[in-house]
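Re: that chain you flagged

S.,

Sorry for the slow reply, it's been a week of failed gels. I finally had a moment to sit down with the sequence you sent. For the record, here it is as I used it:
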Amino acid sequence: MAFEDLLNDPVIQKYLHELVGPTGMPVAAAPPDGEVTDEELAEELGLELNDVRRALFILYENDLATYRRVRDEDSGWLTYLWTFEYENIPENLKEEMHRLLEAIEQREEYERTHEFYLCEVCSIRFEFGEAMDFGFECPECGSPLESMENNHLVDAMTRRVDELRDELNVDATS
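Prediction finished late last night. Pasting the structure tokens below so you have them in one place:
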């Protein structure tokens, strides 16, 4: 998939935005062909050099950019030449989806296997043990803690887990 196609996908735009933030997004959204220095990018995009470097290192940490160092023979200074590796984005997104699936599965299990109580005044939720320790009274305002049904939350998480498993082609036993 070409850079242009990737960058037109709203999911990929959101992914890049989550990685580099709003100040780094111009760097992520404008990958040049071939190698480029951080200084060239900063000048071309009209950004602070530190913002460009931060975005480049985030992309590097996520396998979306690589660099090679070149030492200037006269000054001894190192120059970093950056190359964007956006062909790794689909695999990175798949890994993110697997992490999300695992996190939702764990949270769904937690919600399903615990009993909760709610202070309706403060909107603070307590596990059964905590509620019992507080004598089923809110430690903030003293209101009684009411048993809380979380079936809607568990059902929503179960649906999302099923959707992710379908999308990732993962069995429930995996």
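What I noticed first: The chain has a mean pLDDT of 90.

Talk soon,
D.
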